[in-house]
Amino acid sequence: MLKDIICDEFQITVSELLVVSRSILDLLGRLQEISARLTRHLTRAATTCGCIKITACKQDLPPEIPYSELKSLLDTHINGQLCENCRENIETCLGQMLFYLAAICNHLDLNLYDILLKEYKQMKLLGHYKLA
Ligand SMILES: [Zn+2]
Predict the structure, then answer these.
(1) Does position 128 have pLDDT exceeding 70, yes or no?
(2) Of the candidates 1, 81, 85, 115, which lies 20 to 30 Å from 41 by C-alpha distance?
C-alpha cells in the first residue's frame, strides 16, 4: 500500500534529518512547544486576524439523547473559515508535530504507520465506544 510506504519514508527521513535534539526529553519538550504554538495560532486566527470566531458556551443537551445523534447537536465552537495565512500557520504546526511524533517513534523503536493502523482498526472495531 502506498500510504504505508509514504509514512515509513517520512519516519526514515525524520531519522536522517534529526541531528540536534537527540534526547527524548528534547523531543517531548519540542512537541509540547509546538502544541502551544498551535494553540497560539488558532487563538490569533480568532483574536487578531478574525477569520474565525470561537464562541464557546455550555452545550445543553436534551436528556436521554441517542449517542448517534450527539454529533449533529454538539458544536465545534468555531464559526467561519481559516484565511490562507492562518491555515498555513496551523498546517505548519501540525506538520512539525508529525515530525516530532515520528522522531519520538524512532527513539522508541516504534513504527508510526503501525500505530496509525492499530488506532484505525480500534476505531473501526469500537466505533463510538472508542471515545466514550
Ligand atoms: Zn486568518
Answers:
(1) no
(2) 115
DSSP H or E run through 54? strand 52-54
Q: Is residue 108 part of a domain?
A: yes
- Number of domains within the chain: 1
Write out pLDDT tens, residues 6-58. 999 999 999 999 887 789 999 999 999 999 999 999 999 999 999 999 999 88
Ligand 1 centroid, distance to 107 Cα (angstroms): 36
Q: With 0-12 CB in 10 A as exposed, 13-18 as middle and 19+ as buried, what is 102?
A: buried
1 within some domain: no
What's the gap in Å between 39 CA and the centre of ligand 1? 14
What's the CA-to-centroid distance between 83 and ligand 1, angstroms? 4
Cα(94) to centroid(ligand 1), Å = 16
Q: Tell how far the Cα of 128 is from the centroid of ligand 1, in angstroms.
A: 33
CA of 60 to the centre of ligand 1 (A): 29
53 CA → ligand 1 middle, Å: 10
DSSP letter assigned to residue 94 = H
Domain membership flag for residue 13: no
Whether the pLDDT of residue 88 is over 60: the answer is yes
Residue numbers of the domain that contains 83 = 26-130
